[in-house]
């Protein structure tokens, strides 16, 4: 299994440009998540999905959109890039085991710089 | 909603000594508490977790303790080694919720 894969690894965007961060998992997990991690800071949840066709906002969804047409893929769309979106973006997937235990498997991250 | 506070933000210990990281949570309905380790340039990885019906769990040199009454839980690393240097995150999940709430992270440095 490749686990959780993310592309691209690094990207520079100009203010106002758009892009899609790709995320795919091959573990047949129902749950998928997008986080951003600003330098020296923790993880903030942007959007999450509990299954194909179902998405919900996290704590910092403004400026982003997601879709979940398949179990495997969960792309994150930035429509009008702003310097405040400079961050490292992590995608994760998981399943709920018995007793409420959950292991989130993280991808390697996409580093985004908006200038 | 749930809020998780983590302390300290940085921690430096001598190799071979113990390290302790503490987290508090706000929602008494939280029932699952994982700890993640993030090495430089990588995504976080689960290292240990505990459910609310257990007070302590140990896995070799790492252990987690939970005090439900005080709403705090801690990560203990004994006999620290250079490869323990990383950023550690605690997290909590409210029963029935589909998402984790993460603490702010602790940068642990092991000095040789």
Written description of the protein model:
The complex is a heterodimer of chains A (115) and B (112). Chain A is an all-beta fold. Helix content of chain A is 0%, strand content 49%. Chain A contains no helices and eleven strands. In chain A, the strands form two sheets. In chain A, strands 2, 4, 5, 6, 9, 10 and 11 form a seven-stranded mixed beta sheet that branches. Chain A has a four-stranded antiparallel beta sheet with strand order 1-3-8-7, with no helix packed on it. Chain B is mainly beta and 112 residues long. Helix content of chain B is 0%, strand content 58%. Chain B starts with a strand and ends with a strand.
How many beta-strand segments of chain A?
11
Radius of gyration of chain B over all CA atoms, rounded: 13 Å
List low-confidence stretches of chain B.
none
Number of strands of chain B: 11
Provide the fold topology.
The complex is a heterodimer of chains A (115) and B (112).
Chain A: E1 4-7, E2 10-13, E3 19-25, E4 31-37, E5 43-51, E6 54-57, E7 64-66, E8 76-78, E9 87-94, E10 105-106, E11 110-114
Parallel strand pairs in A: 2-11
Antiparallel strand pairs in A: 1-3, 3-8, 4-5, 4-9, 5-6, 7-8, 9-10, 9-11
Chain B: E1 4-7, E2 10-14, E3 19-25, E4 30-38, E5 45-51, E6 56-59, E7 62-67, E8 72-77, E9 86-94, E10 101-102, E11 106-111
Parallel strand pairs in B: 2-11
Antiparallel strand pairs in B: 1-3, 3-8, 4-5, 4-9, 6-7, 7-8, 9-10, 9-11
Describe this protein with a few key phrases:
heterodimer, A: 115 residues, mainly beta, seven-stranded mixed beta sheet, B: 112 residues, six-stranded mixed beta sheet, five-stranded antiparallel beta sheet, 11 strands
